[in-house]
Structures are given as C-alpha cells and as structure tokens.
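In response to the reviewer comment on reproducibility (Comment 2.3), we provide here a single inverse folding case reported in full, input and output, so that an independent group could reproduce the run without further information from us. The structure tokens appear first.
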C-alpha cells in the first residue's frame, strides 16, 4: 500500500528520555540527526527549557550525502568546534532513527572524538523507536559507568532519588515537592541526579528512592557496587486526591508510569492491589485500573 507506515516513532521516543537525563549535567549533548529530532526534544519533550535553565544541546545537522557516505569526520569536526566554544564536562552523543537505519558505529565515533578532545565521550545507541523510559535507562547507565566514583564513604541522612525527570512527574514542579517532603523527614541532603556532582557522590548516599521504573536499573547498579538499599516510592499525589473526588463504586483509569500510578491508586482508600501489566485495585464493586509500564 502506497504511503503505509508500519513503524513510527513514539510521541516521546527514547532519544528524548536520554537527552532529559543529560539535561543540566554540564555536558555537550549532540543529537545525531538532521535537525528535526533535536527540535522536538527542546521544543516539546523538555519543559526545563522554558524555566530559564539551559543546556548545551546541539543537532548533528546530518545531510543526506553525509549519512549515506558515512562522513563521520565532518561530525567530529563540528563537535570539536563546539568544545572550543563551550566549557563542558563531557560529550554525549544520542542516537536517532537516521543513524539507526544506516548502522552508525557509535564506539568507533566515540574513539574518533576521544582522540581530538580532552573530556570524556559517552554514547547512547537510541533508535527513536523505543519509548522514553528506555532512553532514560540507557543514559543513566552511561553516566553512572563513567562518573560514579568507586571509592566513597556514605554520609548520614543523605538520600538519592532516581527517575526524577519531568517526563516522569505528575506535575512539572514535583521535583521541588520531593525535596521538601524528604527534608521534612529530617533528611539533610536530597540528590536528584540533575547535576554531575550528584553522580560523583552517588556512593555516599545512605538510601536511594526510585520514583519511576526508568530509574530502577540505576538504583540496582549502585546497590551492586556499594550495597546502598533502595525503595520504590512516589511523592506529591496527596494534593491530587484532596479535591473531594468521589471514587466509591466507580471505575477509574490512571494512565502514568507505574510507581506514580500505583501510589495514586493506593491512596484512593482502596483495599487490594496487584502489580504488573494492567495493574488494578478492587474498589467496592468496581475497579481502579492502572495502565503503566511493568516494574519487575
């Protein structure tokens, strides 16, 4: 059939999730595309662009012949020029559908750039066909393996929060709520992993809290290295449930990532919960259905 698209990119694809993790880490983020993907990331998928807190996000500006002929040297030259003008702690290259289709060798590209610059280079092999949480997981893995310092001494009353990205929040200001709630619980310092120093001191926290499935693998990685315990928990849903909403004997659909959705459902005075795909809570004769990603 002419014009039939069998595969299309999600509304918030994996490259958006990866770029969201890199946002604010003082790195040069290069979206390996012709320009459209970078525009969508900055214009739609990253609300922090409108808060005044900017990040160095660049488009590779791939042209048709550059992609077809594999002229990676031109991309390397552009990145080196950006390094000369931007003080950055690292370079992150994020994949899109174009390099995925032509089979770009990210490791080779990483080696080419590393020979030209003096800062670390990390790559995320996103394809633009996965969901944003997969991109977040890949970006967390790349940053953790590169910047977490292996020798660390835990500090008292210091808590890390994984998955604290606007794409995962119920409300754009939930990051501030998380800090406020934990500080009221007498936590001295809350680490949201939204700056590079947070990753460097990831081994010094006393506990990690996972607020979305995308942050689970990172918390497990830190647990494997340092033995730091973690729990899954979301914050801030109390305000959403105080509007005298009558839910008794009604079917309620909650569409969100699993940790936030299940937290909201549990706070809705229901009495049974099953986790996993099509999670639901029995609520009188009706059900509260939670559609979310699976959290193993």
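Designed residues, in position order:
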């Amino acid at each position: 059939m002419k014009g039939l698209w069998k595969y299309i990119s999600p509304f918030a694809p994996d490259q958006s999730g990866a770029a969201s993790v890199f946002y604010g880490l003082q790195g040069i983020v290069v979206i390996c595309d012709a320009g459209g993907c970078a525009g969508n990331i900055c214009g739609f998928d990253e609300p922090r662009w409108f808060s005044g807190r900017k990040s160095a996000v660049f488009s590779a500006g791939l042209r048709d012949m550059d992609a077809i002929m594999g002229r990676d040297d031109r991309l390397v030259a552009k990145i080196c020029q950006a390094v000369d003008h931007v003080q950055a702690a690292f370079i992150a290259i994020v994949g899109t559908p174009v390099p995925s289709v032509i089979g770009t060798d990210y490791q080779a590209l990483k080696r080419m750039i590393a020979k030209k610059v003096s800062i670390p280079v990390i790559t995320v092999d996103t394809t633009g066909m996965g969901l944003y949480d997969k991109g977040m997981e890949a970006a967390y893995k790349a940053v953790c393996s590169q910047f977490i310092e292996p020798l660390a001494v835990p500090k008292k009353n210091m808590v890390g929060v994984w998955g604290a990205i606007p794409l995962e929040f119920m409300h754009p200001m939930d990051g501030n709520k998380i800090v406020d709630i934990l500080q009221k619980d007498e936590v001295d310092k809350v680490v949201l992993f939204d700056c590079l120093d947070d990753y460097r001191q990831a081994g010094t926290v006393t506990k990690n809290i996972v607020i979305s499935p995308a942050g689970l693998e990172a918390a497990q990685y830190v647990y494997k290295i340092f033995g730091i315990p973690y729990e899954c928990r979301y914050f801030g849903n109390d305000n959403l449930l105080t509007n005298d909403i009558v839910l008794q004997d009604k079917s309620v659909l909650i569409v969100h990532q699993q940790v936030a959705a299940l937290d909201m459902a549990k706070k809705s005075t229901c009495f049974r919960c099953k986790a996993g795909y099509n999670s639901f809570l029995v609520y009188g004769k009706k059900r509260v259905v939670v559609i979310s990603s699976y959290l193993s």
